[in-house]
Amino acid sequence: MKLRILIISSIVLAVVMGIAKIAVASSLSTSGISYGLLETQIQTLQKQNMILAEQLYTDTSLTEIASEAATLGFVPDGKVVAVDSSIPVAYAR
Amino acid sequence: MSKRFVIVFSLFLLSFLAINLKLFQWQILKADTLVALAKSQSQTSFWLTPQRGDILASDGFPLATNKMAYVLFARPGDMKDKDVESQLLATVLDVSLATVSARLSTTSAWVPLDWHLPEAQKEQLDKLQLAGVGFDENPTRFYPEGSMAAQLVGFVGKDSAGVDTGYFGLEGYYDRQLKGRTVLATVVKDALNRPILSKTDDNIDETTGRTLQLHIDRTIQYDVEQKLLSGVEKYGAASGLAAVMDSHTGAILAMASFPNFNPSDFWDFDPASFRNPFVSDTYEPGSTFKPLVMAWAIDHGLVTPSTQCDTCSGPVTIGDATIHTWDDKYFPNTTMTEVIQHSDNTGMVYVAQKMKLDGMLSMLHDFHFDQLTGVDLQGEAEAQIHDKNNWYPVDLATAGFGQGLAVTPIQLLTAFNSLANDGIIMEPQVVASIQKEDGTTIDIQPKELGQSVSSTTTKVMREMLVNAVNKGEASFARVKGYRIAGKTGTASVAVAGGYNDPRTIASFIGYAPADDPKFTMLVILHEPASSIYGAETAAPIFFSIAKDIFTYWHILPTVNE
After folding, report:
1. What is the pLDDT of residues B84-123, one digit of tens each?
2. What angle do CA B431, B520, B297 make, to 5 degrees?
3. pLDDT band at B441, cuts 50/70/90?
């Protein structure tokens, strides 16, 4: 009786494990497709990011800003006035 | 045992042996071949080229990064109308029709037309849908600020194996950190050639190059370059260089030189411009060397600021040589403070002779002129100083005013900076930190290299140098309201062992504000034409930059004038 239970249990276990293996393999296979799609998406986004970063850096470089400022007529202010915050020697009453 | 049993047993045994032999053949003898065959059917391997790390200014803006570009190629055999397509390609690429036609007339199956095609041109060509024309992604190095800090940053070219490699400056010095690691990646595919989620490689942690965060302040760097370029043009100099250092940490805030180059198109420039003269070239520092000699002599009790020179009433003759002052004016019994103020060569001969040869050699050692500074840039040169046995009396005399020996500008800046930093010599550093792919950061701490002179001596020197700025030849250009410690320099160019050439190296070195130094700066002009003197060329550039830094850093004036 015990032998029979053991044999049946073994068969059931083998079947369950077989089904599990098929399920995992199947899941992995579909995940692989999703993974591939994600990889492609990542590459596309990275490429777009690189292109946008290039445009951003080009337009915001100091060289470009200074050139644009000069075109618009901005010039450095030669005279700088420093406001001294020290306390006066005497207050008028 | 029955005969039938023996037969059945033998058959089983033979079958077992046959199976084992076949397994032996597959698993042992042909294992490698079969594994390779299986892998070729289910896996695809390819080399992952890592993205090169960025080089960032202190505000995080990249001085060097990567941009998308393409290899534009043609397959002449697949082109439908070669003449029409050649014309269209020539128009978009902005090259002559003859150039494109010549390349397409080859019998090769694959012809490269452009190795670094920008995105915009690629889009234009995409719209034309030319037959037999294709693109491969080929990210390339991009320098958003163009030629800014070109010699400091360096550039990326190809080595003999065609692999991207950094040359000169930071690209060269930190090449291994920046380039990352090339790894072999593997993708496992199913029977329908779809990728299967699997572990691709055991060793692909941190493949991307590391990013360098610099001390370089983009605003100061830009200002230094603008002022230096303007000065080089205004004074008709052959070349010019300048650097600004944080007085307390040794951090390099700006470093520029002209003529320079554009790292994006380095092949269009003279290779001589690739070197960073601030670290790779030596020159005779002239009078900018005097404060160091004077500081050492004061530190060792040989003179004091009020010591009077009793040999300064006229030219000094040593052997066959006669040493004059720069303007042939002489001040009998002049004090050491006035020697620095007037940049008096005869006074410095007096000091050098008090130091004697051993003292001069000790001074050169204490200010680290006998070793490299260790700046993290490629190609640092050594100073050219006589061996101890090859010093003549005249060499000792001329060394007192910075002639007869050659140092690199970075050595002079580092040594002089110690006068602004209580005598502590700081290692000049360009990189502040290194950022790894996983987000961790390696901070590079400021490094003390030694003590040149005592803190007390630096305070004495501070007053002498402030006096030199306020009353010396360059006082007309100084920034009013601020105490700046500095010294002019006009060094003769040595030709064939003599100094008869009228060309000079004009310079100015100083730190500010004198009482609480924030920065130390050195400006050098080679062979200025409008005036040969540092006081009339390099000094105005120095003060102009200093004035802008005061404004930029909100440093208020401290002197009412």
Report:
1. 888 889 898 888 888 888 888 877 888 888 888 888 888 8
2. 120
3. very high
DSSP-assigned letters across all residues of B416-455? HHHHHTTTEEEPPBSEEEEE-TTS-EEE----EEEESS-H
**Cβ–Cβ gap B196/A82 under 8 Å:** no
Give all domains of chain B, ordered by start, each with its CATH number: 69-73+105-138 (no CATH), 218-552 (3.40.710.10)
Structural domain boundaries enclosing A16: 12-43
> Is residue A77 within 8 angstroms of chain B, CB to CB?
no
Question: Does residue A74 belong to any structural domain of this protein?
Answer: no
CB contact under 8 A, B144 and A32: no
- Integer Cα distance of B393 and B518 in angstroms: 39
Q: Residue B407 — very low, low, confident or very high, per pLDDT cuts 50/70/90?
A: very high
pLDDT digit string, tens, across residues B197-215 = 555 555 556 678 999 999 9
- Tell me whether residues A32 and B190 touch, CB distance under 8 A: yes
Name every chain A residue with its beta carbon within 8 A of the beta carbon of B219.
62
By C-alpha distance, which of B227, B212, B239 is closest to B153?
Answer: B212
Q: Into how many domains does chain A fold?
A: 1
Which three-class secondary structure state does DSSP give residue B117? strand
CA distance B553 to B362: 38
List the single best residue of A46, A52, A62 to mutate versus B (max B Cβ within 10 A). Answer: A62
Q: Does B190 touch chain A (CB under 8 A)?
A: yes
ipTM for the whole complex: 0.78
Cβ <8 Å between A29 and B196: yes
Minimal-distance CA residue of chain A relative to B189: A32
In a domain, A4, yes or no: no
Query: For the segment A16-33, what is each residue's pLDDT rounded down to a tens digit?
Result: 999 999 988 777 767 777
Q: Is residue A35 part of a domain?
A: yes
